Amino acid sequence: MKSELNDKFIANSPLFGGNASYVEAYYEQYLKDPESVEPSWRDYFKSLNGDGSSDIAHGPIRESFVDTQASAGQGARPRTGMSLQAAQKQAGVLRLINYYRVRGHQAADLDPLGLYQPPPVPDLDPAFHGLGKADMDTVFSTGSLFAPADEMPLRDIIDLCKRVYTGTIGAEYMYITDTRQKRWIQRRLEAGVDQGLLSDKDRYEVLRQLTAAEGIERYLHKKYVGQKRFSLEGADTMIPALDEMVRSAARHHVDEVVLGMAHRGRLNVLVNILGKSPQELFAEFEGEYDLDELDLSGDVKYHLGFSTDIEIEGERVHMVLAFNPSHLEAVNPVVQGSVKARQSRRDDGAGETVLPVLIHGDASFAGQGIVMETLQLSQAEGYATGGTVHFIVNNQLGFTMQNPITAPMGEVSRTSQYCTDIAKMLEAPVFHVNGDDPEAVVFVTRLAMDYRETFGKDVIIDMVCYRRHGHNEADEPAVTQPLMYQKVKETPTTRARYAKQLESAGVIDKNEAQRLFDAYRDGLDEGKNISRTTLGLVGNEHTVDWRRYTRDHWSHVVDTSVPVETLQRLSNQLHSLPEGFELHKRTQRIIDDRRKMAAGASRIDWGFAEHVAYASLLDDGFDVRLSGQDSGRGTFFHRHSVLYNQKNGDEFVPLAHVGRDNARFAVNDTLLSEAGVVGFEYGYATADPDTLTIWEAQFGDFVNGAQVIIDQFISSGQAKWGRLCGLVMFLPHGYEGQGPEHSSARLERFLQLCAERHMLVCVPSTPAQWFHLLRQQMVRDLRMPLVVLTPKSLLRHRLSTSTLEDLAEGHFQFVIDEPADIDADRIERVVFCSGKVYYDLYQAREERELDSVALVRIEQLYPFPADDYSAVLDRYKNANEVVWCQEEPENQGAWYQIKHRLQVPLEDRHQLIYATRPGAATTAVGYHKLHVKQQEAVIEAALTGGEALLDKGMSRDLSRGKKNATRKKK
Predict the structure, then answer these.
(1) Closest CA to 212 of 520, 439, 529
(2) Which CATH entry fits the domain spanning 563-735+743-808: 3.40.50.720, 3.40.50.10780, 1.10.150.20, 3.40.50.12470?
(3) How does strand 354-361 pair with strand 786-790?
(4) Treating both helix axes as pointing N-terminal to C-terminal, what angle do 58-70 and 20-32 enclose, rounded to 10 degrees?
(5) Strand spans (E) along 547-596
(6) How many C-beta neighbours within 10 Å does residue 23 have?
(7) Would you tell me the crossing angle of helices 331-345 and 675-687 to the nearest 10 degrees?
(8) Distance between CA atoms of 105 and 156, rounded to whole angstroms?
(9) Does 3.40.50.300 match the CATH number of domain 200-532?
(10) Rounded to the nearest 10 degrees, what angle do helices 606-619 and 767-779 cross at?
């Protein structure tokens, strides 16, 4: 039946035989004037070419014509013109062209060492498509191939396809579903193989850049023997490639380029691309520091960042190299966040003014999960930066294990065929290129830059090269890769090869390459940079002066109050909905309650306090950016910063409509990522001190997934690199019997990282405290990370409320003591605590009418408010027992991190006791009854001593009269 239908279609279709020429002519008429052809034909032509643009002329018509004939089978016969055999041959040619586009990269000449021999690709054999030697001189239609002519001999078609797709460039892009992008790449590749040649001037510049790349490495190798520098040798062509990126950026009128990279080649990039002074670099090698003048702990030279302005292609471009530890790809989201902040300052939603460039290693690109997280953010709302240019230094080694360019699954340290396969989830094009063909590398760099500019998407350059030395210069790579390094020793440098190529082509004389090298070396001897001249930090209207954020001190109490009238005005704006906007009934009740709170008719809760804190900051001219996996609504159904119309699903963000005209509020519900998103928000905060940048964990323990970012950037960035950052982290924390995964934000880990007064760790216990803490973060002339252990059950606790006046007056309190009217002389025991456990203690004390126990909340655990703590002890002259109470197990929480601080001011009469859960390997128990029993024991021990509750075998010091004695109550 199907064959009959095909025969009927062929017999009656105008696409066949002698009508083909007529159809082509009619198509050309359509391209000139679509309205001049019949409507039915107009619709047909448009269906062939998507949007009906003039990009495609004869190709689709021919391919449709030939493919229809070829699929009809042997029994079909065209009416006139082309024979069935000729149609089948033509169809085979078009299939062959297509397979070169799809699989040509597998046969490309990519390995400069020649160790990798591409396996045969049957699809690229003409015989596979029914074509033989006898067909080589036959003229065929080139279809959609961007060829010099519409018809060419088969041998010329194959030669063109080989030069484009199996030379020193292997392009992967046919998985892209957007036809416009595919056709754009095809045009640039297929036409560019002949048209994209470099001028002699450009080729000379490439040689000059290669000379600089090799020159700095050889100079450092001789001058500083044995010192690590993580040489770029073997991947020298990265320097001409980066130079071309910067030039292309200037041509596209990009204002800033932000680079992120690990350590390999970093020193080379600093000098030859960013223009760092060689003298300054040499001083770092020689350790010329005045230790008495240092105010940082510092970092090794191949982790350091740099920023400067350069003038190139008639444009001034600000260049930034991000600081990065040895955690390889961890810098990826940091760069993206920094770029997003810079773009936001310019109101650049399309990402045209600031370019992110990420330089990767092949093994780390394939192996590090944060690569995938960052790629997934690339087109997400609130995170898109207009596309990133990724440059992979593919030296075919992961530390000591060889990773071939392509590999059968399971035979090397990765599963994917290429290290770049992760990028296919974005449908990002990948251009594999042989690093020993500098002109091909520069060609694909231009192509990548133009693709990013045109489509605003990520693009990957995979430069296949090698590592001339081991992992570092003292390493011996031949131990694990003997064959590879025999070949490396025999291989001339890229500069030497290219110099000979230019000499043979008559571009340079035989002595010019040596003159360039000598001139570069002489410049280094004089401490001059002759590869790149910088202007220094010139600055512009978007430049941030961070000096003002170092003037304040964490202990400085700032006025964060807001007049009641202002709070009510802001609240009215927040709770005024568009006409006809219908809320869910539960959300409507929350909004109605908030209106009452603003009117003073009821006490305020955490959701109200948070919203008016943001609104007041927006009213002061600050921006607010809140991100997290459920931050719009709030994991605990408490925030509702995004409202949804139940009639049509429309969204309304009240905070986006309050504050000054230029103030912006953004809330982003993120993908299920911690490391990637936290890194992004850290990067954002390091580039924009005037935005309250917040990341919220869905549950506090989810922050575990971002531990590398916390350790390597957030907690230590200021000490290592002098990088200020005001990032706020909301970590829901509290023991409600929800098991080990939803209880603890790992407070102890943050306190363990605390030193040098570089980070705030706070546990607010009331809505007013949260309000003032958030305002303090921006109002104070100080930018340091703020870790907030936020509540869960307290969000609706009847005792954890505040008044409107609490917000309108005062400031954030480091310590909250008992009310002033308490009889301090009756107090015999002072219990210090933080967070939710206070309310459990309070209710138990009231039930038992224990008027000899004072409950004191330490709201800021670091920097520890020692003066406030001492003042509390001085107030209770008759209290000899000082207790630290926490919900967490003994080996977790704050106890071991603040114990020494609690002991410092104690007198001989004092006895320091702690009430905790027993030490545990998990953060919390999984059985609710056991949780309740443990919680009751902690409260009992804190309020009354509870000696009977001490675990068997647990030691305790009950000695009295000894200063700072400690005993355990459980």
Answers:
(1) 520
(2) 3.40.50.12470
(3) unpaired
(4) 150
(5) none
(6) 20
(7) 40
(8) 19
(9) no
(10) 20
Radius of gyration of the chain (CA): 34
Nearest alpha carbon to residue 701 among 663, 730, 744, 659: 744
Cα–Cα nearest to 268, from 299, 235, 307: 235
C-alpha 841/C-alpha 331 separation (Å) is: 44
The structure tokens 């109470």 sit at 885
* DSSP state letter for 712: I
Tokens standing for residue 179 = 């036809």
- Hey, what's the torsion of the CAs at 366, 367, 369, 373, to 10 degrees? -20
Backbone φ and ψ of 409, nearest 5°:
-60, 135
- Residue 891: exposed, middle, or buried by beta-carbon count in 10 A (0-12, 13-18, 19+)? middle
CA distance 212 to 104: 34
Both structure tokens of 525: 């001897």
How far is the C-alpha of 109 from the C-alpha of 115, rounded, in Å? 11
Q: What is the pLDDT of residues 492-536, one digit of tens each?
A: 999 999 999 999 999 999 999 999 999 999 999 998 888 888 878
- Decide: helix, strand or coil at residue 408: coil
The domain segmentation of the chain, as residue ranges, is: 2-169, 200-532, 563-735+743-808, 818-969
Bridge partners of residue 883, in order along the sequence: 831, 913
Cα distance from N-terminal residue to C-terminal residue, the chain:
85
CB 45 within 8 A of CB 37: yes
Backbone conformation region of residue 854, classed left if phi is above 0, alpha if psi is from -120 to 50, else beta: beta
pTM of the model: 0.88
Instruction: Judge: domain 818-969, CATH 3.40.50.11610.
Output: yes
Question: What would the 3-class secondary structure string for 633-692 be?
Answer: CCCCCCCCCCEECCCCCCEECHHHHCCCCCCCEEEEECCCCCHHHHHHHHHHHHHCCCEE
The count of other CB atoms within 10 Å of the CB of residue 290 is 6
Q: What whole-number distance in Å separates Cα of residue 369 and Cα of residue 330? A: 10
Q: Residues 115-136: pLDDT tens digits?
A: 888 889 999 999 999 999 999 9
User: Which residue carries 């021919």 as its tokens?
Assistant: 62
The strand ranges marked E within 48-202 are 139-141, 151-153, 169-172
Q: Which residues pair with 361 in a beta bridge?
A: 393
Residue type, 686: T
What's the mean per-residue pLDDT of the chain? 87
368-404 pLDDT, tens digit each: 999 999 999 999 999 999 999 999 999 988 887 777 7
Question: In this model, does residue 329 exceed pLDDT 70?
Answer: yes
Distant-in-sequence, close-in-space partners of 30: CB < 8 Å, separation ≥ 6: 36, 37, 41, 42, 45
Is residue 18 very low, low, confident or very high in pLDDT (cuts 50, 70, 90)? Answer: very low
Sheet containing strand 860-862, edge to edge, reads: 665-669, 623-628, 691-696, 728-732, 786-790, 760-762, 860-862
> Are both 200-532 and 818-969 of the same fold?
yes
Q: Is the peptide bond before 112 cis (omega within 30 degrees of 0)?
A: no
Residues 206-265 pLDDT 10s: 999 999 999 999 988 888 877 777 888 999 999 999 999 999 999 999 999 999 998 888
Q: Which two tokens stand for residue 761?
A: 């760790």
Identify the CA nearest to 307 among candidates 338, 276, 264, 351.
276
Structure tokens that stand for 812 in this block: 């954030």
Q: Which residues contact 185 (CB under 8 A, 6 or more apart)?
A: 171, 173, 176, 429, 447, 451
Q: What is the C-alpha separation between 783 and 550, in angstroms, rounded? A: 7
CA distance 366 to 619: 46
- What's the pLDDT at 404? 76
Question: Quick one: tokens of 86?
Answer: 């000729």
Count CB-CB contacts under 10 A for residue 907.
Answer: 9
